[in-house]
Amino acid sequence: MQSILFLLRKNIKNGIIDTFRHPLKLIVYGLIAASLVFAVIRSFTMEVDVTERLDSRILSGAFLTLLYFISIPIMLKGLSTGSTFFTMGDVNNIFAAPISPKKILVYGIGKQLATSLFLVVCFSAYGSMALKMFDLSAQNALLLVAGIALMLLIVQIITLLFFCICSARPVISRYLKLFIYFLAVYALAATISFMFINGLTLENLYTAITQPYLQYVPFIGWVHGFIFGIIESNALQTGIYAGLLLISVIISVLIFVRTKLDYYEDVLQNAESYYEFRENIRTGTVSDRMMIGSRKIALRRQGIRKGSGATTIFYKHLREGSRRSRFMFFNINTIVLIAVAAVIGLGMKSFFSAYQQKTIIYIAVAVICAYIQFFFSAAGDWVKELNKPYIFLIPDSPVKKLIMAGATSIIKPFTDGAVAFAFLWLLIGGNFLDALSCMVVYGSFGCIYISSNILAQRIVGISGNRGVFITFYMGIMVLLMIPGIVAGILLLSVTSGELMYLAATVLSLPVTVWNLFISFMIFLMCKNLLNNIE
Predict the structure, then answer these.
(1) Is residue 487 domain-shared with residue 440, that is, in the same domain?
(2) Where are the beta strands (DSSP E) in 204-323?
(3) What are the backbone dihedrals phi and psi of residue 219, each rounded to the nearest 5 degrees, phi first?
(4) CB-based contact 378:232 (threshold 8 Å)
(5) Residues 79 and 192 both lie in one domain
(6) Same domain for 193 and 86
(7) Domain ranges, residue 339
(8) Cα-only R_g, the chain
């Protein structure tokens, strides 16, 4: 045990030293700390009118959603035989020491818990804001923060239970994974079905997210019911959910104590894979394994059979995409966009119910979805193609090769936008021209993200420092967006009142034209990127 404590001390010390040796990392941590301090100061200085305070049911639904986002990923990791509990340093230093396997596993889970507790610090900074926005007492705000900490503790204990049950039992692991997915699907189905039965109104949305059925969900719902039972002074609810949590913790600990664990081989393999993944992220290398994971790929059709010259790259990406999924351009990103559009659309529909006012909803959804798209566009087929020599050897125009390499990454935002905004139009109505404009402008932002990435690659280099690259990428992206957004706002300001019901279309027209124009110009200017394989 002393060796584990020694390693913990050294890890903390080396982590602090490493932070000061990397100025960019120190700046990022400083910005995070500054934003947290600003949030605390802003929350205590802001004035909120009593009539503008939000419905307390929003807080209940948001807290439950937060618990889901915290717990589901951690439980899924527990089914992967502790894939990220240990690093290669842990494997080299601890696994060779004469320490009980159970103590080593507790050490790994504890490290994961310590990392997750950083979330509690972040959310506690915004707890004072909730005091005013929802008319909470200081004790209740602290209870919410304590609920997040409790959820982190419970989910780590449940992760230990899953690990003990699933160790060397892949069939049980698959069933438990389906059970975890069911927890999320159950909550979504209960909320959506309630709204469709009772009507798509804001009041029904508030009622749907506070249904007592949602508190029946094991672990997640129980923590929510326990915390809000205390807040609402409901002794029976508090006692029931406290008892359920206590029983589940005791059972998990007993199973862990009585189980003989033999996980070294699995952890060693996963630690090596995770180390390779982190190195690829650090160096900017995108491998096939990162794109498709460890799952088996059904070959189905073989061979490209289409295209010549640079277009062969495009058809190659289509074939690879069809092997990864039958619906190449429809994936989890599309589902997230549909969900975001639906939630925002239904939430704003009560405030902007008139036909002429629904254009405001389209503008809000387009802005938020364009922001979310930034996180979806981090990597694509074209990034992987630049790490292979074949694209440099194709005897064709560099511009054409660059466009064909990024063609699937360009098409994807347009298909996502078409599906999300078509669904939004069916949900809230309004002018279809607004929906069509939002589809196109969303896709044009995808072109901006790709062209900004290409320009940053051209300036920094394909194998350049990733910190410098990300800095250039963010700066270039913002600079490229500004002219189109400014032009759209200016055009909207001079538009007559009779056309304001098409505000989304008027605003998106110059933004789309500028995004597509500047993206194509960057493709032309960066053609030399493929002239030199070095």
Answers:
(1) yes
(2) none
(3) 70, -60
(4) no
(5) yes
(6) yes
(7) 311-530
(8) 26
179-226 tens-digit pLDDT: 888 988 888 888 888 887 887 677 787 888 888 888 898 999 999 999
Amino acid at 387: N
Q: Is the dihedral of CA 302, 305, 306, 308 positive or negative?
A: positive
Amino acid at 81: T
For the record, the structure tokens of 525 come out as 């200017």
Both tokens of 89, joined, read: 């340093």
Contact in structure between 60 and 209 (CB atoms under 8 Å): yes
Q: Alpha-carbon distance 377 to 371, whole Å? A: 11
Q: Which amino acid is at 203?
A: E
Phi-psi label, residue 396: left if phi above 0, alpha if psi -120 to 50, beta otherwise = beta
- Cα angle 426-428-429, degrees, rounded to a multiple of 5: 65
Same domain for 377 and 460: yes
**Which residues of 361-481 form beta strands (DSSP E)?**
none
Do residues 320 and 199 share a domain?
no
Per-residue pLDDT tens over the stretch 378-395: 656 666 777 777 777 788
Whose tokens are 């394989």? That residue is: 533
Q: Is 229 among the domain residues?
A: no
The whole-angstrom separation of Cα 59 and Cα 67 is 12
SS (H, E, C) 461-499: CCCCCHHHHHHHHHHHHHHHHHHHHHHHHHHHHCCCHHH
Alpha carbon distance 120, 81 (integer Å): 26
- pTM of the predicted protein model: 0.61
Which pair of tokens denotes residue 367? 């802005």
Task: Please tell me what DSSP assigns to residue 202.
Answer: H
Place of tokens 């690879």: 320
What angle do helix axes 101-125 and 56-78 make, rounded to 10 degrees?
160
Shared domain for 59 and 38, answered yes or no, is no
